[in-house]
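Please review this pair:
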Amino acid sequence: MIMFTSADNQQLESLGISVQQVENQINQFKKGFAFSDLTAPAKIGDGIVKFNENEIKELVKQFDEDKQYYDIIKFVPASGAASRMFKNLYSFVEEYKDQEIPANFLKKEKIKPDSAENFFIGIHDFAFYNDLKNRLQEKGKDIETMLKNNELVEIAETLLNADGLNYGNLPKALLKFHKYGDTARLAMEEHLVEAAEYSTCDDEKGKVAQLHFTVSQEHLGIFMKIVEYVLPKYEKKFGIRYKVSFSVQKPSTDTIAVDMNNEPFRDKDGNLFFRPGGHGALIQNLNDLHKEIIFIKNIDNVVPDKLKPTTFEYKKVLGGYLFRLQQQQFEYLEMLDSGDVTNEEIDEITVFAKEKLMIDIPDFFSTYNEIEKIDFLYSKLNRPMRVCGMVKNEGEPGGGPYYTRNSNDEISLQIVESSQIDHKDEKQEAMFRSSTHFNPVDLVCATRDFKGNSFNLNDFIDPETGFISYKSKDGKDLKAMELPGLWNGAMADWITVFVEVPIATFNPVKTVNDLLRETHQS
């Protein structure tokens, strides 16, 4: 048992973290996390559903007709800093800060798409170009002259630093992504536009689009100001009202850091050192919403208006399929709850659970009596559900869809990251390599039961699916723990259904030069 000082206990109390939580985390450091046990990759016809054109039209129609009966919200994790987008620009500034840039720097024959050179060559095509130009003008500089004279370091610094546009310190949500004539939209604004199409429901005053952004505490104020400023424009444009809410990652979801001997790590002032628990901590924010239907999408996966129709269509496909499955799920749960179910109906429910909800029905199920079968099916059906879009794997990074076996010997569909796989195991590596699809973070979730009560999403987390990484602080090595990922272990015990969606719905912005791709040019 770890001995905590009175100061430690006060610190824990201020964070909302119990001694038991810390002890559990330290024990987890000691035993480590097991790799995922893959049993097979999910593929079309075996774990991934693919719809034909008629089915797509039917599901879109079902979504459009039924959405008025649901409480729908769009959930966007938006606290991530944009600094990693500008990695190559930071390297460029560091390299050429105190030395002359070669005259042919922007005239080389072969220039990599993600290079600093390509950034400057394509600079006029960025949505933030005019802001950058105007900021330099305020400094008495002309950007065109600077480009000709290779004064590129100052241009980059003006974009990145606090005395310029400060893009290196802002979250991605607050960067201008797309141009529309003389105007431009922030990444956050594109989510407002999307929400007007598929994240709306009706109330006594008409149509309302609901969005929730998770943000960092330091940027909460600027988020609120910008939303207040831009909402009237979009409410007028789409003839709707918006309800936009925010939350920050809770300090109570931070995890203790330990030294190389798995003892609590302390900072130079002797305080226990905690680190953010990763995006898996956001399951608490999701849980606090108590909404019925929740669309989840990453902040940087947006496109200009010209490409939005495909995104809209498949968001409705995922939502319509969720409605269809849930309506049948609730009907069967009411039957099971009453206990008045025939053997034929039990067989019918079993087929639905296995073939539509992809629930593993073990061989020993056939040996159960009627009551045991009803209890088993009720427990398996009475869970939150998610329908997840999956795109064909074309080399982009991201978690993949697999059948996995957990510590209770239960097989289920899961989204598994590469870091969760034992690549030294030949069989596991072979399954990893044979995966045909990956996860673009395109989810629609149902989080209420058939009686209308919100599930406690904490009850469906697999705590054994976290991750340990190695970091340093104050020159000392430490081990950090990330909680089970939001769409990985945090949703491990949800009913999970995978649907193929086209690659056109996946256009993330990982580096600033991704904004030069055709899919981000208006």
Remarks:
- The chain is about 35% helix and 20% strand.
- The longest strand covers residues 206-215.
